[in-house]
Fold this sequence. Notes:
Blueprint: H1 25-34, E1 39-43, E2 46-49, H2 50-66, E3 74-78, H3 83-94, E4 98-101, H4 108-117, E5 120-125, H5 130-140, E6 146-149, E7 164-165, H6 166-171, E8 188-194, E9 202-207, H7 208-222, E10 229-231, H8 239-242, H9 244-251, E11 254-256, H10 263-272, E12 277-280, H11 282-289, E13 302-306, H12 313-321, E14 324-332, E15 337-341, H13 353-360, E16 365-366, E17 370-376, E18 392-398, E19 404-405, H14 409-415, E20 416-417, E21 420-429, E22 435-440, E23 444-447, E24 450-453, H15 454-463, E25 467-477, E26 481-490, H16 498-508, E27 517-520, H17 533-545
Parallel strand pairs: 1-11, 3-4, 3-5, 4-8, 5-6, 6-7, 10-11, 10-12, 12-13, 13-14, 26-27
Antiparallel strand pairs: 1-2, 8-9, 9-19, 14-15, 15-16, 17-18, 18-21, 20-21, 21-22, 23-24, 25-26
Amino acid sequence: MANATNIYDIGLDANPSNFVQLSPLSFIARTAAIYPDLDAVSYGAVRRNWAETYARTRQLASALAQRGIGKGDTVSIIAANIPEMFEAHFGVPMSGAVLNTINTRLDPEAVAFILNHAETKVLLVDPEFADVAGRAAQMANRPDLLIVDIEDPSFDGGSRIGSLTYDELLATGNPDFDWSLPASEWDAISLNYTSGTTGDPKGVVYHHRGAALNAMSNIMTWGMAQHAHYLWTLPMFHCNGWCFPWTIAANAGLCVCLRAVRPEAIFPLIRDERVTHFCGAPIVLQMLVNAPDELKDFTHEVKVMTAGAPPPAAVIANMEAMGVEVTQVYGLTETYGPSVVSAWQSKWDGVDADQRARLKSRQGVRNIALEGLMVADPETLEPLPPDGKTIGEIFMRGNNVMRGYLKNPSATEKSFRGGWFASGDLGVMHPDGYVEIKDRLKDIIISGGENISSVEVEDVLYRHPDVLEAAVVARPDEKWGETPCAFVTVKPGRTLTEADLIAFCRDNMARFKVPKTIIFEDLPKTSTGKIQKFMLRDRARTLDDQG
Length: 547
């Protein structure tokens, strides 16, 4: 009788009147219709309202469609937090294509891999990254790739590498382009690459439904009043800026764009643009805390959302002493960025500053878009006691979990277990239901908010002719959160200095991945010859204690 029809199944089917596919593209159409004259984007001398911004996104969609770009195609962009990057978050998926935002810190080899793996049809290039993009395009050997140069009069440098400019591309499009929502909210909206435990990054696929729900969840998580002024200190290439391009469209807010994240630029913008919200890794918070006091001349309420390596309680306390309210969130590229929030409870209002910072430094509870969060045995998936002591793997499930990894069904299958997404992070569940990270199951190092694969760094170290063995772990760092620390055994009869090996790494990988510390010693191993990384992590922490 389980399948028997009941009275609510008769004549009450979904139809175009009562069911519409969820997509964040609806947000900009609504905001442009209701608040056309309200400022949408600010960047130096550029200031556009929502009507103008919406028209430009439709032109972009139209221009792409005229070139045969549509569903199943990838449009990549490598750019700083400039207006064109914001526009691409709407214009590209309006054409039916999938947006791929490329990490601006990657080397040409990694960018070339992404262009080929994603089968990119169009590449939009910020002049600051023209050299890297041009070299990557040559390595990718894709003569059919359409390269479009973004021009930025405020940036001094760069060169044209494409066949037309972004504005020339827009000029071929129709500002009244009749775009449509996806046929299915499960359709891909964006592609984000994340480092795994192997050298090649994995392509994380987002769907329209998850993007819409996580974007709205950001508003609820922060209690954002309508028309927030949001400063782009978080890279838009990172998890689509934690879905905040779509959040600000839903909020009818102002995007305050920023090319370089520096205190001397951030504080005047906070003051002059009346910034209410911004995001950033703990390194950004630390940078602002240590900025000269004369820069900190804002008087209005400001909120910051932080994630990445767990922020030290002292950094949180110092930010709040400066007048910036801190909310810590936690997530992965695979969960659209923040999916867990250290939600504040009114019963904690009376605690002292140190206890407040300690409570805020826990990762927290699921946001409104995440359906499930647990700490469990990674083998059996049995939930572990919420005692704040028993360590297990953190698992999530819900609408803000990725579709899977592009062209990698085995990795996708491995990440989904028993109806849960396995985060690879180790943590505890406190009695009040708040999760706190204790370690990482995978040896991923989070430095300045960016993931670094220890295996990728080890692969480079092993290329040096004098290196016998190498292992890389995270070393706590006051500025970056974590930095790579390499333990190296030199081949018998050879000599090798830290400076020489660091120079070799700089020649063979992106600068932010280069080990900041190298220790030459024999590596501890199990009886089967496996390097005992947990002992090296302990050593790295000891190094930190010794300064």
